[in-house]
Amino acid sequence: MTAPAAQEDAVVVSDIAKSFGETRALDGVSFTVRPGELFGFIGPDGAGKTTLFRILTTLILPDAGSARVLGLDVDRDLWAIRSSVGYMPGRFSLYPDLTVEENLRFFAAVFGTTIAEGRAIIEPIWRQLSPFATRRADALSGGMKQKLALCCALVHRPRILFLDEPTTGVDAVSRREFWEILAELRATGLTTVVSTPYMDEAGRCDRVALIHGGRILGIAPPGALGAGFGHALVAVRGTNRFALLTLLRRHPDAISVYPFGAELHFTSRHSPTDAPAVARELAGWLAANGHAGAEVAPIEPGVEDTFMARMGDASPAGEAA
Amino acid sequence: MSEPAIVAEGLTRRFGSFIAVDAISFTVERGEVFGFLGANGAGKTTAIRMLTGLLAPSAGSARVAGHDVATDPEAVRRSIGYMSQRFSLYEDLTVRENVELYGGIYGLSDSEIRDRGGALLESLGLTPWARTLVGAIPLGRKQKLAFSVALLHRPAIVFLDEPTGGVDPITRRQFWETIYETAARGTTVFVTTHYMDEAEYCDRISIMVEGRMVALGTPAELKERNAVASVDDLFVRLARAG
Amino acid sequence: MRGAALRAFIVKELQHIARDRQTLTVLLLMPLVQVLLFGNALRNDVRDIRLAVVDPSPSLTTQRLHDAFVATRRFRIVADARSMDEVEPLFRRGRADAALVIDPAFTEQLGRGEPARVLLVTDASDPNTGSTMQAYALSVLGDYERTLRGGGAAGIAVQTRMRFNPTLESVNLFIPGLIALVLTLVSALMTAISISREKERGTLEILLVSPLRPWQIIVGKVAPYIALGLANATTALAVAWLVFRVPFRGSALLLLGESLLYTVTSLALGVLIGANAPSQRAAMLGALVGTMLPNTLLSGMIFPIASMPAPLRLVTNVVPARWFIVIARGIMLKGVGLQHLWLETLVLCAMTAVLLALAVRRFHARIA
């Protein structure tokens, strides 16, 4: 019985390092992206996301390590890669004085194709853009600009997409719409690699890599990221949050306490299996200390919880509890 | 003697035929942490520029720190602190030089600059970095420094324009703790942000859509009134409706 | 209160200036360079006048006239001809600055006690040096005349002629240089800004991650501006001819062609500046400084190259405008054709090729 032929990975990165002067932008990064995956890089500014994307799109060479995109080497096969990749760099980088249609036509022509040939794949986005076809690109709203940039990256039917922070600086509504488009594209089987500083967007990806300070803190499907959390996590809701925060930090079992929107997340020394007991104990302790009305419940660690925990482990400064 | 920190009534700004800010009215109490939300292009930046005395209103009025923004913008600017994501500190000056510069600009005496500046650097753990160029220190520390510098002259109100953009989640939260501490000392904090979870940290929030203020209240009230679970959902619902 | 704020602000500005090493160097060094250049260029005396002597009937007397000129060390005899026909091509090719035409009956005229006739022809395409050269020549002749007096000779009758610019119109001097300046400035500025804008906006990144090769990007940048450059050249030449009445003795087509070539040279220079500039503003500054300064000081447009010290004259050879001005003056004022200007044209072609090659190399496929 033969095993099914393994499809070649879309991206294979092995121990990549890159420095600019004294700054280490990437420090031993390794990962793979499977074909058809929607893969996310989650991390703040300066984490190394843009440097990584520039290496994968063959714009920069790494100082060490190797990277293969679509089975091609980023060093030797750069022209082959450049013809097959769709790229959206960080800022809005299209031509503001050209119209939507003119921008699209230009990028199609640069890749030796036409809008007509790319119509099928850009259809979901084009539906939203076509009312503005003759409008100058700089007259579009932020969200529309990003959608246009995505169109231009797609029109030549690339085999893989690299989107560097496509939703940064864009409002919440447009961000949602953008990710809905990405979901539709994923359904067509297009491999997409995205980077974002917004932790909540991790949930939209097949797998995410948490990246900080040039290193990867962890790779897993978003739901499974919390697996290695190792501590009980409890959410606390109550009035006078600041006072609650300072109080909780004085609890003997507290490793860290941080605000999370309307809640506070309390990380306890105890193991995750003890979470319900920790919650009960905490509720009692709070009541005894003047916060009888506080709601306490055990929770599963989310992407942001995991990120912060691993950040703390990785950096020498540690926690500031 | 408890005049609100900010009182806006029918504040409007037109650019030709385009109405950027459409008669917004609201108050911000002293010591409040007020979240001013809205999509890009919704009129937030224009409104802030009017409130900080940088732009004259076309109609309506606003009083900030007890001064009228239209007739007394100088006084307004002297009484407030301002920090924006795009610009705050000079990257090619050292930490100490930036502190001295802003101290001088805000009219502090040399001894005040020395004392407060020193205390500021101590509290941020930046004393060993005093001679380093600001451009060389990590983003998180830079943000905290910029915030502290905006408070050097102990203003009654401080305006923060997307202060935590791109910063890592821990630093973000530490920043908000500093905001809380500042508010607890009586300074009013007026902040804009794209992070909807940060909106939950505010005492009250407002949401602007296409120049109009479509929501104003505490996060809890607004969520209940609109039957949504988070400010993020609230924002999306109101922005799409608008 | 106000004073302290102002003081703090001034201190800050000083700190900015001190920290910006690059701009500081330019601000301190540039005036020094300018003073040195201007000082050296701003000379009116002419050193090395190339004199062609036409002596149909050489004799001891004419030989002494010969020697009188050589003795001054200002004149260098570049030709010893028997008729004007031999000298004419030298003028056209710019190999001679002046010609001393001695009357065939010079010796006899002196002997007979008649004024001996000589004709002094000076190349006045640069009216300043033309006048100066003529003045020197006349003074040499005057001295020579005095040495003759004793022998009962009646003196020398000198006829003077200013070649190529009989009315000594200074505008004829300036206009070719002005055309060069305008063409350079606009062309270099256009491409420099275009390229640096692409970099700044980030669209360059997308263009690189595509099948487009660097040379294609550069050609794409330069090509549209050629048409614009040609339009500019035509306008400038039309204005020179119609408004300033600069003579147009040579082939207009050739001039247009050479202007086109020169435009491409400037465009290539602009691409090189734009590819190296860190920002649009730097590109603009670089284009202005990199073209205006050499063009006004070192191209021979205002200050004659012949008056400059030798090392500076060497430097002028790398300024493209210097070659174009020779071409433009040659065609407009002297009416010469390609057969006399092939060297200058070749130099411009070579410069263009080198600049483009450098630009393509700078533009290599990766950004770091």
Please report which band the strand proportion of chain A falls in: under 5%, 5-15%, 15-25%, 25-35%, 35-45% or over 45%. 25-35%
Low-confidence stretches of chain A: 1-5, 315-321
As a percent range, the share of strand residues of chain C is 5-15%
Q: What series of H and E elements makes up the topology of chain A? A: EEEHEEHEHHHEHEEEEHEEHEH
Rg estimate of chain A, integer Å:
23 Å
Helix content of chain A: 25-40%
Largest sheet of chain A: 6 strands, mixed
Strand order of the largest sheet of chain A: 6-7-8-3-9-10
Global morphology of chain C: elongated
Structural class of chain C: alpha/beta
Number of helices of chain A: 9
Mean pLDDT score of chain C: 82
Order of helices and strands of chain C: HHEHEHEHEHEHHHHHHHH
Terminal CA distance of chain A: 56 Å
In which range does the helix fraction of chain C lie? 55-70%
Overall description:
The complex is a heterotrimer of chains A (321), B (242) and C (368). By secondary structure, chain A is α/β, with parallel strands linked by helices. Helices cover 32% and strands 26% of the residues of chain A. Chain A has helices at residues 49-56, 78-84, 100-110, 115-129, 142-154, 172-187, 241-248, 275-288, 303-314, and strands at residues 11-20, 23-33, 38-42, 64-69, 72-73, 85-88, 160-164, 191-196, 207-212, 215-220, 233-237, 254-260, 263-268, 295-298. Chain A starts with 10 loop residues before the first strand and ends in a 7-residue tail after the last helix. In chain B, the strands form two sheets. In chain B, strands 6-7-8-3-9-10 form a six-stranded mixed sheet. A four-stranded antiparallel sheet of chain B has the order 2-1-4-5, covered by helices on one side. In chain B, strand 7 (157-161), helix 6 (169-184) and strand 8 (188-192) form a beta-alpha-beta unit. In chain B, helix 3 packs across helix 4 (110-124) and helix 4 (110-124) runs antiparallel to helix 5. The model of chain B has no long low-confidence stretch (mean pLDDT 89). Chain C has helices at 2-19, 21-41, 60-71, 84-93, 106-112, 127-149, 170-201, 203-208, 214-242, 252-276, 280-297, 310-316, 320-334, 338-362; strands at 49-54, 75-81, 98-102, 116-123, 156-163. Chain C is elongated, with a radius of gyration of 26 Å.
